[in-house]
Specification:
This protein is an all-beta fold and about 1050 residues long. It is built from two helices and 79 strands.
C-alpha cells in the first residue's frame, strides 16, 4: 500500500502514474506467432534491488531487461533514457543487462519504446513500462531561514530536501536527531541552556507565496502539472475554455515559464492530462473539448512538437476523464464522463493507440478517478455524480467489467475526487467536495470498502476540487482544495489523527475549477497550482517550508546576544536517497531574542549643573531631569513620563539618553515616574517601572505657623512651617537670642523681651516668658524672629514680620459675679475701713437695673459709705454716698438706661480737711460736694460687696472687680491713671500719676469667680486685721 501512495505522489510531482504489475508470459496457441514482445525493466545497485520510482544515492545502477520471448535484435540503441546514459550493454535471448549512469542529481527514466525491436516472427515490441529512478547523492543540509520564535521557546530549522531519521527514507525526525549548543557573551546576565536536546519537535506549518504563470489564458478552466519536456522540472498544461486553446508552459528550471500553443482550435478546451500514451519515452497529452465534443490525444515527437489524433469526435460535453490500464494489458486506457449524455465510458487501447469505446454505466459520472480501490490488482473507478448527488465506485472484476457501488447517496452536487490512504491504515480513503453544501469531506475505508463520512470543512463556498498530498512534509497526508464562489485556494493540515486545520493560500482568484500539487521549484516540498476562470489567471503558489520547530529549554532571561546552534546528531538525519546530514552545518545558528525589558534611571541637576539627589529639597526654580535607559529605545516619549507637583517640557534625546525640564507648580513634594510597559526596546520588550524620583521644592522662607501659651503664662510655644536653623548653612540649633518678645499693655508686664529659656520638639520651640504683675486675657504677647537669625535648610531667612505669632495671655485677673438674690462678699468690721480720709474703688458691669424706688449696692460699709445703683422715679443712676450726723450725702452720677454699657470704673473719695466728697465715673469727676462739713462715721459694721449689709435685700446683680480701699483721698489724676482709658491699672503698681500703693488698705482683684454653693464669701481672714492685704488670687 505504501508503494501505491508513493506512486500517487510521483504522479503529482512528475506527471507519471503507471502501476507496476507482473507481466504474464504468453504462450502461442497456433503455429503462427502474432504476439508482440514486451520487455520488463528492473534494476539493482549491485547488492540490492532498486524499485522503479525510488530514490537512492547509487552512482550507477545495473539494469536488467527481461523479454517475454526470445529476441535477437534488441540492442543498446533500442533503449531510451532521460537524465543519464547506458553503457556495458550485454545479453542474449530474453535477458540483457547494462549499466546506467545518471548525468546529475535528478529524476531519470529508462524505457523501451514501441517498435524498437522484433521477435523471431518479426512482431514489433510493445512499449515497456517506464523505469523511473531519482538519483540523489547530495546530503541534506540546513538552509537559510533558521529562526528563533519571539519568546525563544522554539527554533525553526529548514532542510534542503525532505528528510527522515533512517537511511531507508522512512521515519519522522525526533528530538534525539538534533543537538543544541549556546554561545553566551562574557558580559551581562545571559540565559543558559537547560538541555542540549530539544524538548519537543513539530513540523512547522508552511506558508505560500503567489506567482503568476499566465494572466491571459482566456477562460482558464483546468491545469495539469507534468515534466512535459523531461528536463527534470515541472511544466504546466492549461486549457482555455473560452479561447479554445490547449497550451503548455515550459519551465526553464528557475520557474520562469514560456507559453506554447499545442492546439488553437480545441473548441471549449476543458481538461488535459500528460501521459506517455504510446510508450515512446516522451510525454503525450490527452485532452477533452467540452463544446467540441471531442476526446483527442497529442503525440509528442520528443521535442514537444505534437500531432493531434481524435479518439472520439461525438462525445457530448465531456467534463472529466482519467487514464489507467483498466484491462491489465499494459497499455494506457481512458475513462471519461460525458455530462450531457450522462454516461461513463472507457476507451480500450489495443497497444498501438487504437481505441475501442465501452460504456461502463449510463446515468452516472462527473470526475472519474482510476485507482485500485479494493487492492485486488486491477484498476477500479471512483467518481462523483452531480446529477444524482452520489459518490460512486465501480469495481473492476479484472476483465474490465464493472459493478457499480454506492459510497454516499446524499452528497449535494459533488465535484472533484481524490483517493489516498488518508488515515494510514493500509487501505484507500476518498476525499471529495460538495459544491452546493460548501463541504470538503472524506470517507474512511474500513478495509472492506465500507466507508464512514467525516466533514473536514463546511464553509468552502462553491467547493469544486480537492487533491491529497503531504503538503507540510510531516509524514501524513494533507488536503488542498478550491472554492469557486469563495475565490479561495486552501489547504487542510492533517495532525496525523485526521483532525484538520484550515489555511488559506489565496482568497482572490476568480472562479477556480481545478487544483494541482507538484514540486514546481524542486526544493523538496510540494507547491500548489490553480487558475481563475474569470480572471484568466494561471498561478502557482510556492511552498515556503515550515521546517522543524524544536523546543528550547532555557534558564534565565535572554539578553539578545546569545547564539543558539542547532546541529544534526551524528548519523541521524537522512534524505530519501540515504545521504546523511553532516553534523557540521551552515545557516544553523540564530540569536536568542532579547526578552529583558529596558530599565530607566532618573537623575536630576539644577540649572547650574549641580546634582540634585533623589529625595532632596531645594529652592531651584526647575530641574534638568535625565532619563538613562540601559539599552537603546526609539519610542520613549514625553507622554511616558508621569509627574506630580509640576510639569515636564523641553523633552529631547535618542538612543539611551533623554532629558527634559521639570518645573514645579508650587512649593511642596513632587514626583517623577516612568511607569512599566510605557516604552520598548528594539526587541519590543516592555520596560520595567523606574525608581521614582522625589524632590521637594521650597522657595518660601520659614514662617511661624502657630503659637500657643502655657496655662500659667510661663512659656510660649511657636511652630515653624519647616525645619529651621540659626545659620545660613542649614546647621545650628535655635537659641533664646534668636527671638524677641513683646507684650501689650495691661496689668502684667514683661520682665525681659528675650525668652528666659528655649527647648525644641521637631519644628516647635518652647520659649520661657518672665512676667511681672497679674496677666489678663486682653494682653497680647508677640513672638518675633530676630532679624537674620532664623533660616531654613535652603538659606531662606525668617522675616521679622510674621503672622500667626501672637497669642493672648491666659487671664489671671478674674471677676466676681453676683446673682442679685443671695450672693455677696464681705470683710468683718475693722477700724482700718474708717479712716479720716479715704478713697473707695470698684469696677462694675451690671447685669440688671433696680426697679423704681429700689437700689443695688456695689460696695457698702453700713452707715459709713456706699456706691451703687439708685432708681429714683424710674431713672437709674450710679450714686456715691457718705453718711454723717444721721443723714446721707448723696452724689448722683451717670444715668444708666440699660445693661449693655459694659464696665464702669467708679471711685468715691473724701478729704476731711477740705470737706470734699467726689464721685468719679470712668476717670471723670461727675459729682462733688465741696464744703461738706461731715466726717467719717464710726460704725461697727462689715465691709460688704454686693449688698447694703448682710441683712439687707438690696442685692447687686452683675459683675464686680478690682475693689480697692485707700486711707487717703486720690487725686483726680491718680483716678484717671487707674481708669487707664478703660483698660484698668494694677493698683499695686506705681504708674505715672498714680502713686497710692503705700496708702492701699484693701485690694480685692477677684482672681476667681465666687459662684459656689455659699451665698456669701468672707474675706475676714485675708490678713487685713494685721494691716496687710491680699492681692493674690483667691483660692
Amino acid at each position: 500500500m505504501k508503494t501505491l501512495v508513493r506512486l500517487i505522489s510521483v504522479f503529482l510531482i512528475h506527471g507519471i502514474s503507471v502501476a507496476q504489475f507482473a507481466i504474464p508470459t504468453f504462450q502461442a496457441t497456433s503455429s503462427v506467432d502474432k504476439t508482440s514482445p514486451r520487455i520488463t525493466i528492473t534494476a539493482t545497485d549491485g547488492s540490492n534491488a532498486v524499485a522503479s520510482g525510488s530514490t537512492t544515492n547509487d552512482n550507477t545502477l545495473t539494469i536488467t531487461f527481461t523479454s517475454n520471448e526470445t529476441t535477437s535484435n534488441f540492442i543498446i540503441g533500442d533503449i531510451g533514457v532521460v537524465g543519464g546514459s547506458i553503457s556495458s550493454f550485454s545479453g542474449s535471448d530474453q535477458i540483457y543487462t547494462a549499466t546506467f549512469t545518471p548525468s546529475s542529481n535528478r529524476l531519470t527514466k529508462i524505457y523501451i519504446p514501441t517498435g524498437a525491436f522484433t521477435d523471431g516472427m518479426s512482431n514489433k515490441n510493445y512499449a515497456s513500462e517506464i523505469f523511473e529512478w531519482t538519483y540523489d547523492n547530495s546530503a541534506p543540509t540546513i538552509v537559510s531561514g533558521t529562526t528563533m520564535s519571539s519568546d525563544n521557546s522554539t527554533i525553526t530549522v529548514k532542510f534542503s530536501e525532505t528528510v527522515f531519521n533512517s537511511s531507508s527514507g522512512i521515519g519522522s525526525l525526533e528530538v534525539a536527531d538534533f543537538s543544541f549548543a549556546l554561545l553566551v557573551p562574557m558580559s551581562g546576565n545571559p540565559a543558559a541552556l537547560s538541555s542540549s536536546t530539544p524538548s519537543s519537535i513539530a513540523k512547522g506549518v508552511p506558508t505560500f507565496s503567489d506567482n503568476t504563470i499566465d494572466a491571459d489564458l482566456n477562460g482558464a478552466i483546468s491545469i495539469f502539472a507534468s515534466d512535459l519536456d523531461q528536463d527534470g522540472d515541472v511544466d504546466v498544461i492549461g486549457c482555455s475554455y473560452q479561447g479554445s486553446n490547449l497550451v503548455w508552459y515550459q519551465n526553464n528550471g528557475s520557474q520562469s515559464f514560456t507559453k506554447y500553443t499545442i492546439d488553437a482550435s480545441l473548441v471549449g478546451a476543458r481538461e488535459a492530462i500528460a501521459k506517455d500514451l504510446d510508450r515512446d519515452g516522451d510525454m503525450d497529452i490527452i485532452a477533452i473539448a467540452g463544446q467540441g465534443d471531442k476526446l483527442c490525444w497529442y503525440d509528442n515527437n520528443g521535442s514537444q512538437s505534437f500531432t493531434k489524433t481524435t479518439i472520439d469526435a461525438s462525445i457530448e460535453d465531456p467534463r472529466g476523464f482519467d487514464v489507467a490500464d483498466l484491462d491489465g494489458d499494459n497499455d494506457v486506457d481512458i475513462i471519461l464522463d460525458a455530462y450531457t449524455e450522462d454516461v461513463l465510458v472507457w476507451y480500450e487501447n489495443n497497444g498501438f493507440e487504437s481505441f475501442t469505446k465501452n460504456t461502463i454505466v449510463s446515468d452516472a459520472g462527473f470526475r472519474p478517478f482510476a485507482v485500485d480501490l479494493d487492492e485486488d490488482g486491477d484498476m477500479d473507478i471512483v467518481t462523483s455524480d452531480t446529477n444524482s448527488d452520489e459518490l460512486l465506485w465501480f469495481e473492476n472484476d479484472g476483465a474490465a467489467s464493472f459493478t457499480e457501488r454506492s459510497i454516499d447517496g446524499s452528497i449535494d452536487n459533488p465535484k472533484g475526487v481524490s483517493v489516498a490512504d488518508l488515515d494510514e491504515d493500509g487501505d484507500l480513503d476518498i476525499v471529495t467536495v460538495s459544491f452546493d453544501d460548501d463541504d470538503v469531506v472524506w470517507y474512511a475505508n474500513n478495509g472492506s470498502e465500507s466507508f464512514t463520512k467525516s466533514t473536514i470543512d463546511a464553509d468552502l463556498d462553491g467547493a469544486f476540487d480537492a487533491a491529497i498530498a503531504d503538503i507540510d512534509n510531516d509524514g501524513d497526508l494533507d488536503i488542498a482544495a478550491v472554492g469557486q464562489y469563495a475565490d479561495d485556494v486552501v489547504w487542510y493540515a492533517n495532525n496525523g489523527s485526521e483532525s484538520f486545520t484550515k489555511y488559506t493560500i489565496e482568497s482572490n482568484i476568480d472562479k477556480p475549477y481545478r487544483i494541482q500539487i507538484a514540486d514546481v521549484d524542486l526544493d523538496g516540498d510540494l507547491d500548489i497550482l490553480s487558475h481563475g476562470y474569470n480572471d484568466d489567471d494561471v498561478a502557482w503558489y510556492k511552498n515556503v517550508d515550515g521546517g522543524y520547530d524544536l523546543g528550547v529549554s532555557l534558564s534565565g532571561t535572554a539578553i539578545g546576544t546569545e547564539v543558539l546552534t542547532v546541529s544534526p546528531a551524528s548519523s541521524s538525519i537522512y534524505d530519501a536517497g540515504g545521504n546523511v546530514a553532516s553534523t557540521s552545518q551552515s545557516y544553523n545558528t540564530a540569536y536568542l531574542n532579547d526578552k529583558t525589558g529596558p530599565t530607566m534611571t532618573i537623575t536630576a541637576a539644577n540649572a547650574s549643573g549641580t546634582a540634585v539627589s533623589d529625595g532632596a529639597t531645594t529652592s531651584d526654580n526647575y530641574l534638568v531631569v535625565t532619563f538613562i535607559s540601559n539599552e537603546t529605545t526609539t519610542n520613549f516619549a514625553l507622554a511616558d513620563i508621569s509627574v506630580s507637583g509640576g510639569s515636564m517640557a523641553s523633552f529631547s534625546g535618542s538612543g539611551t539618553t533623554y532629558t527634559a525640564n521639570f518645573t514645579p507648580s508650587s512649593n511642596g513634594a513632587t514626583t517623577i515616574d516612568v511607569a512599566g510597559s510605557t516604552f520598548t526596546d528594539a526587541s519590543g520588550n516592555n520596560n520595567s517601572a523606574a525608581t521614582q524620583f522625589n524632590w521637594t521644592f521650597d522657595s518660601v522662607a520659614p514662617t511661624i505657623s502657630g503659637t500657643s501659651i502655657a496655662s500659667d503664662n510661663s512659656t510660649i510655644s511657636v511652630t515653624f512651617n519647616e525645619t529651621v536653623y540659626n545659620t545660613n548653612g542649614g546647621s545650628g540649633s535655635l537659641q533664646t537670642s534668636d527671638f524677641s518678645l513683646a507684650l501689650s499693655s495691661g496689668l502684667s508686664t514683661l520682665s525681659s523681651s528675650t525668652p528666659s529659656s528655649i527647648s525644641q520638639s521637631s519644628n516647635t520651640y518652647t520659649l520661657g516668658v518672665s512676667l511681672s504683675g497679674v496677666a489678663s486675657a486682653d494682653q497680647v504677647i508677640t513672638v518675633t524672629p530676630v532679624s537674620n537669625q532664623i533660616y531654613d535648610i535652603y538659606g531662606s531667612v525668617a522675616s521679622t514680620s510674621q503672622s500667626n505669632n501672637t497669642v493672648n495671655l491666659i487671664d489671671k485677673n478674674y471677676t466676681l459675679t453676683l446673682n442679685g438674690s443671695d450672693e455677696y462678699a464681705y470683710y468683718s468690721h475693722d477700724t482700718d475701713f474708717q479712716p479720716t480720709d479715704w478713697s473707695l474703688q470698684a469696677w462694675v458691669d451690671p447685669s440688671a437695673l433696680p426697679s423704681s424706688g429700689n437700689n443695688m449696692w456695689f460696695v457698702s460699709k453700713h452707715q459709713v459709705y456706699r456706691i451703687g445703683l439708685v432708681n429714683t422715679g424710674g431713672t437709674t443712676k450710679i450714686n456715691g454716698e457718705m453718711r454723717y450726723d444721721g443723714r446721707w450725702e448723696k452724689l448722683a452720677g451717670t444715668t444708666i438706661s440699660n445693661t449693655s454699657g459694659g464696665w464702669y470704673h467708679i471711685v468715691l473719695t473724701f478729704d476731711n480737711s477740705a470737706d470734699d466728697l467726689i464721685l468719679y465715673i470712668n476717670g471723670n469727676n461727675v459729682a462733688e460736694n465741696l464744703g461738706y462739713t461731715g466726717s467719717t462715721n464710726n460704725n461697727n459694721s462689715s465691709f460688704v460687696i454686693g449688698n447694703r449689709n448682710a441683712s439687707s435685700t438690696q442685692w447687686y446683680n452683675g459683675i464686680i472687680d478690682e475693689v480697692a480701699f485707700w486711707n487717703t483721698e486720690l487725686s483726680s489724676s491718680a483716678v484717671s491713671a487707674l481708669y487707664n482709658s478703660g483698660s484698668g491699672l494694677n493698683a499695686l503698681s506705681t504708674n505715672g500719676n498714680y502713686s497710692g500703693t503705700s496708702n492701699l488698705l484693701l485690694y480685692l482683684r477677684m482672681q476667681q469667680n465666687l459662684n459656689d454653693s455659699d451665698a456669701s464669701y468672707d474675706f475676714s481672714n485675708d490678713g487685713i486685721g494685721s494691716g496687710n492685704f491680699n492681692a493674690d488670687p483667691i483660692d
